[in-house]
Amino acid sequence: MTVKNAFYAQSGGVTAVINTSACGVIETARKYPDKIGKVYAGQNGIIGALMENLIDTSQESDADISALRHTPSGAFGSCRYKMKSLEDNKEEYERLIAVFKAHDIGYFFYNGGGDSADTCLKVSQLSEKMGYPIQAIHVPKTVDNDLPITDNCPGFGSVAKYIAVSTREASFDVASMAETSTKIFVLEVMGRHAGWIAAAGALAADKENDIPVVILFPEVKFNQEKFLATVDENVKKHGYCTIVVSEGTAWPDGRFLAEQGTRDDFGHAQLGGAAPVVANIIKDALGYKFHWAVADYLQRAARHLASKSDVEQAYALGEAAVNMAMEGKNSVMPAVIRTSNDPYTWEIGSGNLSDIANVEKMMPMEYISEDGFGITDACREYLLPLIEGEDYPPYKNGLPDYVTLKKNLAEKKLPEFTMK
What we know:
The protein is an alpha/beta fold. It has 12 helices and 15 strands. It folds into 2 domains: 4-142 and 306-358 and 392-400, Rossmann fold (3-Layer(aba) Sandwich), CATH 3.40.50.450; 156-303, Rossmann fold (3-Layer(aba) Sandwich). Strand 1 (4-10), helix 1 and strand 2 (36-42) form a beta-alpha-beta unit. The longest helix has 22 residues, at 156-177. It is elongated and about 70 Å long. The protein starts with a strand and ends in a 20-residue tail after the last strand.
């Protein structure tokens, strides 16, 4: 069999375990020297391919690649760059193929969410038409947990664990001060359309911890009157109330609570912060003193609190992507298939990119409690295994010991390319 090089890239918002998948891809590729030559990584995601900035991972030591397993963020750089349709910008896709051809790349591993699956699919289709076949495998990643086919997405279990822990710890803090000071704590979490991360905040309360947690989901339109009544009732009963609000929580007319009236490069409404909006609604109506926080990057960078099951699945999916390529598969995504809840067991399956690209998996309504402010037992049963177990990174001088790669670039072979 002809030896071909591989290209790997990270896409979109990074996670606590995306580098774990990178580790899985690279370590597994090194086990096939008779089929895979070098693994090039895109500097800053797919832009690295377009600009021919290819990081030669063969110059990274086995120890440093292994250390990616416990290092957060995107070690090779990621990007928020959505390639347009083939019809609108065929030149970019042709450039990708030209770069792959120049560097003898026959395998394309794209580690990201729904947009990445779409790009992977298009590259596979165009490469076939251009007579230079590329085996394109999508490696799932997204804290939003909104990819179809797979039971859950690498990155989500760790952010869910961080939010559940933070909600419980902050609630203990508020409870201790509520008699004479703060009675309301509002935590804003990621999730523009799907409330998976917000749902994790509800795990802070259980039979041993009677914590009053109110969840605001993107899937449930914000009913201000009902919300205020629920918060007031919790304060009168418990002395305090914790609110976990998804950034995508919206008014009945569809406007986001935090909408600023501006849009980003993808056409998404830019959000200014739902937490202060919710906190001030409570202050104006009920007069309770509040504190609020936005988890922001902290929730997705917290490798020190990663879920063990998330780490294991992130690595396994990176490994499976390479194994699928070695089996001759193309235009597919390895997926987590849950086989049992108790005990929690799972296996690796797969889905076709044509069934995954541009499909968003929302939270099932049966996972949201009848009042719209909490989760059901079925949701708790789904979530709990995903935050199970600890996988602490090594520490040095009191801090996590993360790796920084050399990231040496391969020599360029093509003319400069100007992105539109």
